[in-house]
Amino acid sequence: MQKEAWYSSTIEKAVRDLSGDLTTGLSSTEVEARLERYGLNQIRQGGQRTVFRIFAAQITDFMILVLLAAAIVSGVVGELRDAIAIVVIVILNAVIGTIQEYRAQRAIAALQKMAAPEATVIRDGETVSIPATSLVPGDLVLLEAGNIVPADLRLYESVQLQINESALTGESHAASKSIEVISDTGLPLGDRRNMAFNGTMVTRGHGKGIVVATGMNSEIGNIAELLQEEVSARTPLQIRLTRFGKQLALAILVICTLIFIIGLLQHQPVLLMFLTAVSLAVAAIPEALPAVVTISLALGARKLSRRNALVRRLPAVETLGSVTYICSDKTGTLTQNQMHVEAYFADERRLYEIPDKENEVMLWQRLGQAMALNNTVADQPANRDETVPTGDPTEVALLLAAKKAGHIKSALAHQLPQVAELPFDEQRKCMTTLHQDHSVVISFTKGAPEVILAMCKNQLTRQGVQDWEQKTVLQQAKELAAEGYRVLAIATREFKSIPENCTSSSIESDLTFLGLIGMMDPPREEVLQAVADCRAAGIVPVMITGDHPETAGSIAIRLGIADKQDRVITGQELEKLSDTELASQVRDIRVYARVDPKQKIRIVKALQDQGEFVAMTGDGVNDAPALKRAGIGVAMGKKGTDVAREAADMVLLDDNFATIVAAVKEGRRIFDDIRKFIKYTMTSNSGEIWTLVLAMLMGMPLPLLPIHILWINLVTDGLPGLALASEPAERKVMQRGPRPPEENIFAHGMWQHIVFVGILIGVISIGAQAWMLARGVDYWQTAVFTTLTFAQLFHVMAIRSERDSLFRIGLFSNPQLLGAVLLTVVLQLMVIYVPAFNTIFKTDPLPIYDLGICVLLASIVFFVVEIEKWMIRRGWLYVNR
Fold it and tell me: Is 329 noted as a catalytic residue in this protein?
């Protein structure tokens, strides 16, 4: 039934098809039968996974399984501390993931809050109030200002009825409703003027409608169904880490097996080589990686919360770093979601405000008076000392513009008391009020330009009443409309007394034209810079809105999203494009107008199919499915609906589009820091492996014991590695393009660095071993252990930036890392010089001279990496970065 184009049906046909009655409504017996057939008028929640099933899914991720395997191996070889640490980390991350998914499932529940709690209907010939959930198709519903529409209705009575549909359509101003049949088919929701939709708000007038769709068959129900169908894609970080885990597991298995075999061929003890291989395997698995990811994301989320961005799903923070397209709703996201008067055409010229210095001129007096008095907006108390105008957004804009020019409605109501009114209706498309002005009566009429101008015989200018060229004014009205303004015309007339017959024909004729008013929901001031920043970062902003194409195009040009030559695609045009045609054009389209929720999803999916990573911003119910389908959904917190907020990954608490730029920067920082952690730990592991392999190949004694490997893994890798999560963003992080979502985590020279620096650390460590063995000292193994440890500490200080020298970024710019390095140094010295630790770790105290030599050798790593970064800055290495 939801597929029926009810707006193109006559009232008689709709009533007949629904077996209704416009006089008595449905009978109680018929209502019961229809409730059995159609069910309750409520949003149905889809099949949701239990908390246990969500938790189980979290711990079956491949990287998590590898870590659990490492925990089992650690327990088998007696390293219970490592095993417990790994299990705790796995459980912590699984719990966080479970909470995230459970919260995401609440998106459907928020839709239920939008349903009207009660509805006024005609049943059994009587007007009664009933729970909105008991409405059925065929019911007759009465609407008044302030009501939430309880179901989808085909209107059969409309008296100045206006409904705010912005949450569904994206239009800033309330939609005027009528009952006439609309012959066109395939119209977007915003153009179905004889329909009222479930969950929207009546702002003015009253009306009646027959229920045509309830519950999941309503437009909100269709959105709920889309939300149930759409499942958020895995984030780039999850994809990369899964791939990394598989590659790492395979590499560890091969390398540890080779080391075990080489040791046996060199007649090393079987148990010793088994323990060495297993210890190396445990050390090579970066069990702190999930913790580092969680800490990085949590720190990023905390930073963003201080900038009014609430992260609902932690991976969303990093995900922003991969965004290539930001598809943004217009109303309330790029714009202020409040109509403003921005342009006038009066006195044969265009102005952008009423001239203060000419207020004494009759033209400006009358224009300001008309804007204030031809107005049904009422002031509502905001607090003890202030009031705010509430009502139709267009009239609120007129009232505020008049007030800005010094024309206060409350004062004018005493000076020019209203004596009569011809209310607005869809047939006349205008509204007139009459006011007593001393001995005369003046009228103010406002409405559609083509209607008002046809009623005028002359115009008022600074020089007084003059003849005029109607074509000139009509052309100006068309130009304002083409620029995206909503245009109204205002005129006046003077009477000696109140006409006996206050009819349209007697009052709305022979008028004097005052001016055209151009209104617009203006762009947010900060968005222009935010759009420019996005472009500089290689991100393409796209506008997707339910508003009119002229308005959408105008705003997009003003913001720099589109150029004048760019085409605006409407929902009807989009519907005619095949998937293949859309795929070939989607990367070049910057503005979509009059689109519905399903089309928003289609646009997002088309971009994703082209390999783009899409962020979707929005605030309305109509945005929710696309928010969930996008790589990352960003909702507005103040003016956003509950539905949009629940479907989103991140909520902007200040509704500031510019906050997204800060979030993108934070996402890039987080991914950079995760890469640095992987680079650090894998280079450390590479150094340990090369130390063992080179010693065996050169026929030297085993340089490291299993306990040494596990100590390095636990302390040297762990403490500084975790502190890397606090590393500030790179200087030019927002001047490079987005990372392709499919990009390998080892890209941009990382694997070359791991291999090269790993070999360097191995050579330095073996060099220390050879030198100590040549001198015949007993503490040669402690020297290798110490050299390797300090080499890794020098390495972590050198890789804090991928390009800039440590001397440029400053030693103290990451105090957490500096503290972790100093703590590691203290712990390592304790292992060397405290007798109790000597026994546990099988170490010997090093003479100060030899300790100095070990530190000096280890420092080579720092200077080599600094040279590597200098070559990167010169463009000699990894030029694709």
Answer: yes
